[in-house]
């Protein structure tokens, strides 16, 4: 075997393969989430990884003080906390708004449609669009930052409502008087409650010609590291172009909202 081959084989044995890198990250995540030291057997069960493979990774991490062992159980070491501090500082420099907008651009490029960030107002009756990346298509949905729409008739509003308890949703539906903004706007509170339940289960909301004629909206929630709701990622498209693509658009929005949430530290 050549020197290069020997080096590569040695790297594999030391845990340098891409698969091992992924295992190291997942291993550290498990230890980070645990309030108590974790045994090798428990780590093997949680990560669905052979104990022999994990033992090799743990020895390497222990050499750098990322983990320490006591009485047969493993916990994070001082090296891991130093890395955590460095990552926190890096995240502070890279503002959350930049990460969100980067994801919005990705979604716009991949879908070809306008992408918005929607947040709820303090009264919980309206959504406000606070950022957008506009489609390059000649025919596209157009909205201005600062525009407001009712919760019940928008994909972003329904996605945000789905993060609330059923009691809070019921209170909202008693408080508002839904109006028909188009010929197909759903205004029946019982039907709206069922729709929001479905959004809660699917993790994505979709509306067709609800707040405006000819507009299809698709939305999913972005969360921060503490699990808090940052807002709704909304993709808005002309209904004529969205027909036949509804499942694809729902998947794209849900996946991108999850990717943005991960970049913000949500697990």
Q: Can you give a write-up of this model?
A:
One of its GO terms (molecular function) is DNA-binding transcription factor activity. Residues 18-78 form the HTH iclR-type domain. Keywords: DNA-binding, Transcription, Transcription regulation. This is Transcriptional regulator. This protein has 267 residues and is an alpha+beta fold. It folds into 2 domains: 3-91, Arc Repressor Mutant, subunit A, CATH 1.10.10.10; 94-263, GAF domain (Beta-Lactamase, 2-Layer Sandwich). Helix content is 50%, strand content 19%. It has a 6-stranded antiparallel β-sheet with strand order 6-5-4-9-8-7, sandwiched between helices. A hairpin with a 6-residue loop joins strand 7 and strand 8. Helix 6 runs antiparallel to helix 11 and helix 8 (166-175) runs antiparallel to helix 9 (189-202). The model is unreliable at 1-16 (pLDDT under 50).
């Amino acid at each position: 075997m050549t020197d290069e081959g020997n080096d590569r084989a040695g790297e594999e044995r030391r845990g340098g393969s891409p698969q091992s890198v992924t295992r190291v990250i997942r291993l550290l995540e498990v230890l980070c989430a645990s309030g108590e030291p974790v045994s090798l057997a428990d780590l093997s069960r949680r990560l669905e990884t052979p104990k022999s493979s994990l033992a090799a990774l743990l020895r390497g991490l222990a050499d750098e003080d990322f983990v320490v062992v006591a009485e047969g159980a493993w916990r994070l070491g001082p090296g891991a906390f130093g890395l955590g501090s460095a990552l926190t500082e890096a995240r502070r420099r890279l503002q959350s708004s930049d990460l969100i907008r980067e994801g919005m651009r990705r979604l716009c490029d991949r879908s070809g449609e306008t992408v918005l960030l929607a947040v709820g107002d303090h009264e919980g009756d309206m959504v406000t669009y606070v950022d957008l990346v506009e489609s390059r298509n000649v025919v596209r949905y157009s909205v201005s930052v600062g525009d407001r729409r009712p919760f019940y008739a928008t994909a972003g509003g329904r996605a945000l409502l789905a993060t609330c308890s059923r009691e809070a949703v019921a209170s909202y539906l008693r408080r508002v008087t839904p109006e028909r903004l188009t010929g197909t706007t759903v205004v029946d509170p019982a039907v709206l409650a069922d729709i929001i339940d479905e959004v809660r289960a699917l993790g994505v909301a979709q509306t067709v010609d609800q707040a405006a004629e000819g507009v299809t909206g698709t939305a999913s929630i972005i969360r921060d590291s503490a699990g808090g709701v940052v807002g709704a990622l909304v993709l808005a498209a002309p209904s004529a172009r969205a027909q036949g693509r509804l499942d694809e658009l729902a998947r794209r929005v849900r996946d991108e909202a999850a990717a943005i949430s991960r970049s913000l530290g949500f697990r």
